[in-house]
Design a protein that fits this description.
elongated, mainly alpha, 3 helices, 104 residues
Length: 104
Amino acid sequence: FAVVRKNGCFCCVVACCECPPLLLLWGVLSMVWAVLGMVDSLTHLGGCVVCIAGPIVQAIYCIILFYMGLCCVMLWVQHGSEILPPVFQAKGPDGQTVGSAQGV
């Protein structure tokens, strides 16, 4: 919930991390977990008539979890769908080769 409310900022105990690929990972994992939970709640429907409250509550939780995962994926798309940053090129001073192998 905090990831969506803070526009992609993951807050840990003492630090916050803003990383668009983590939005994608968290979103996909949340949606997968929601689908698996929904399948699990459907398997428990046939247990007994009185035991129907548990699977219904679990199904509601799974719908909310799937929605939160979808929101994380949409935030990732809104941030530019960046998994790796663009290529970084560094140029050294004129006349000096940077990073060349030395012959022995």
